[in-house]
TrEMBL record:
Keywords: Membrane, Transmembrane, Transmembrane helix. The keyword Transmembrane helix applies. It comes from Streptomyces hyaluromycini. Residues 249-267 have a biased composition (Pro residues). This is Integral membrane protein.
Amino acid sequence: MGHWLERNIVEPGKLPLLLALTAFVLTFVITRAITRLIRAGKGPFGNVKAGGLHIHHVVPGVVLVVVGGFGAVASSRNGLGAALAAIVFGIGAGLVLDEFALILHLGDVYWTEEGRKSVEVVVITAALVGLLLAGFSPFGVNDLSAGELQDRGTVIANVVANFAFSLVALSKGKARIAIFGVIVPLVGLVGAARLARPGSAWARRFYGNRPRARARAGLRAYHHDRRWSRLTRSLQDWIGGKPDRPEPVRLPGPGPGPGPGPGPGPGPDAGRR
């Protein structure tokens, strides 16, 4: 493990990326734990306020991202400054993306259905950064043997092929499969081979004059969403907390009438002016 870490992380200069990813994931986990305690009214935590204004943690997150980003640019590649800047940047990114939905909707949707987008973005970001971190790079590693160079070239070719399949899956309206297809082999191929979702760019381009294909695509999308939506929601609730239930719509009651009986009807001259 130590040899692999030295060979593939430290030597190619990926140590700051590892520190940033670790800080990012830990910050998200700790932040979600604290916000769930605040929501449940447990622990010594509470919302940060200044003069009655609720300061969301995206605000210090933006500051940390700016400080960490400029610090990384100003630091050497593998120095102590780069490592500290990477940690600061990872913490800031975790705070910002934890409230990604608030930025997207410009509203306090943290514990609503729209707030699930924050969890999705955090998971996808961590997966993509993990791919960059674990990927074999033929650059920056000294004294590669012919076998090592061939192995790394094979891995890179597979990643490029998976990326091409993922682009097709993305055009078919399957964003999650497209993203994870870059990371997990054959996932993008499966997404690219299956029917496109209705309304996607692929469906508009190739199903326009094929009503049977459009009908099959709509039916498959319906069954897919029905089969997997509950599992997806349960996983999101486990990671980020269950959103609040929307308040029921209250219809206005009948106004006060003139009396228990019907009022007088219109006279014979009603409507004449």
